Amino acid sequence: MAYVPSCGSMEYDCPRGCFSGKMSNMAATxxxxxxxxxxxxxxxxxxxxxxxxxxVDEETQRRIDELADKCNEGTLSAEERAEYQxxxxxxxxxxxxxxxxxxxxxxxxxx
Length: 111
What we know:
Blueprint: H1 25-41, H2 45-52, H3 58-73, H4 78-107
Helix pairs in contact: 1-4, 2-4, 3-4
């Protein structure tokens, strides 16, 4: 998985305000898990392996790194903050999908 740096943490209450959603990290994780659960119930070994191969392209990773640096420096514009929050939201979703895929493959005795 591609590394997505965060502003101090991947939590929803980032200390610099880069990602300041209204939900607690625990509530958001539970909500995401409930949203992803139907997908995990219909996984096939091939689909699970494909999910594990998802990576961001180099250009996107460079943009994420740039936004993370600006977040850490406290210099994100409002537009950049929204863009960075979007990346973090998708990263959290992908991370959860990949965890479900790993669990599926482990339980189905297939790599």
